[in-house]
Target: DUF4242 domain-containing protein
Amino acid sequence: MPKFLIERTLPGAGDLTAEQLKAISQTSCSVLRNLGPQIQWVESFVTPNKIYCIYVAPNAELIREHARLGGFPADSVEPIKETISPVTAE
Model:
């Protein structure tokens, strides 16, 4: 199943409280349950003004639908072609 990187611009994201992040996560999980098992949220990274998410889904359109239904921005949805790390250099 393809893996995607989603960029979400959210000014002040880094200042969100644990409770606010929990609420966002709960909304996302609720939408995911309604969309079915073919789309999965892997993890997200919160930066000062953006949230970057990793999702597994059959296509980018389903990820955009998740964003629309959840009221989340999805500024870009890019397929992940490869993963590299320091181990790649060995």
User: Anything to note?
Assistant: The chain has two helices and four strands.
